[in-house]
Design goal:
CATH class of the largest domain: Alpha Beta
Shape: globular
Largest sheet: 8 strands, mixed
CATH topology of the largest domain: 2-enoyl-CoA Hydratase, Chain A, domain 1
Oligomer: single chain
Order of helices and strands: HHHHEEEHHEHHEHEEHHHEHH
Number of strands: 8
CATH architecture of the largest domain: Alpha-Beta Complex
Length: 320
């Protein structure tokens, strides 16, 4: 059963009514009359869903990006990567399960896949620390990116995190340095890096895996230097102003495409990736394939310089 967000309450009521009618039909064999009523309500629910998702506010998009039913790293791997072999550990301290990575085949091409994993239920979310990586997670990412570079494997990253874990232990083990080192490694690779923002892209914890030759963002994903709640707490001393912060921060894929922070926005389908996971995953796969194809036959020096030039150009005003 899909979970409904607050602004989806009218849709939830219609779908609950459909569910009740179908149960009644199964118990009483109501026949054509019930089927006709179900069809009418379903049509109304579909139209309301299209209208609602066609005019989401930035804060509503933040809520969708955090939806518990959105596809996670393991879902994208299952849908896009064949023969995936996970690789664990940073060879220094521990294996951080908030970041997962490994080698597999994407549409016949060997690749390295690295990404945040939030988990799909409470037990797995705790195991993966809700996708908030510690220093060993970023050091694992660096190790895997260096391995990919050594063997000429393109890197695909799947970004979905509120941010790096801010605990005392993480700070003691060098969280800031680990994030900076991961970002530096992204810039230094001589193989293509395709970064995909599939949910939340929060702060440096997201940037550490998102410095790509191509940055692809799902339609209802968000990307920002801080969460709206964190921004509101700093500016207005109240997390209750998160909606105002989201409006001001330009966190949506559409705003970020206009600002040229991301290169492509991938449509998720009506109702978001949480309603159409297979469709959203396939659409993202097509976008990744197109992005990789642009670097076929390019040497390592070109690939690395392309990435560096791309990020140096962000924010330029174009004044002659």
């Amino acid at each position: 059963m899909i979970s409904f967000l607050d602004f989806e309450k009218p849709i939830a009521e219609l779908e609950a009514r459909i569910h009740d009618l179908r149960q009644l039909d199964g118990e009483q064999q109501g026949g054509a009359d019930i089927e006709e009523e179900v069809a009418q309500i379903q049509s109304k629910a579909d139209e309301l869903l299209r209208e609602t998702y066609g005019k989401l506010t930035p804060w509503q998009k933040v809520q969708v990006a955090r939806h518990p039913n959105r596809p996670q790293f393991q879902d994208y791997v299952a849908g896009l990567i064949a023969s995936f072999t996970p690789l664990a550990g940073d060879r220094a301290y521990a294996d951080d399960k908030a970041i997962t990575g490994g080698i597999g085949r994407f549409r016949g091409r060997s690749v390295m896949v690295i990404g945040h994993e939030k988990g799909s239920d409470m037990q797995s979310r705790v195991r993966h620390n809700f996708g908030m990586a510690r220093p060993e997670g970023y050091r694992k990412a660096v190790r895997l990116m260096r391995l990919a570079d050594r063997f000429g494997l393109p890197v695909i990253t799947l970004v979905d995190t509120q941010g790096a874990y801010p605990g005392v232990g993480a700070e003691e083990r060098g969280q800031a340095e680990a994030i900076a080192r991961s970002t530096e490694t992204c810039l230094d690779l001589r193989v293509p890096l395709i970064a995909c923002l599939v949910g939340e892209g929060g702060s440096g914890g997201a940037v550490a895996l998102a410095v790509g030759n191509a940055v692809i963002m799902l339609e209802h994903a968000v990307y920002a230097v801080i969460s709206p709640e964190g921004c509101a707490s700093i500016l207005w001393h109240s997390a209750e102003r998160a909606q105002d912060a989201a409006d001001a921060m330009k966190v949506t894929a559409q705003d970020l495409a206009k600002l040229k922070v991301v290169d492509q926005v991938v449509e998720e389908g009506v109702g978001g990736a949480q309603r159409n996971p297979a469709s959203a995953i396939a659409a993202l796969g097509d976008a990744i394939a197109d992005a990789l194809a642009e670097f076929d036959g390019r040497d390592g020096a070109y690939v690395r310089q392309h990435r560096r030039d791309k990020f140096l150009a962000i924010g330029q005003l174009g004044i002659a």
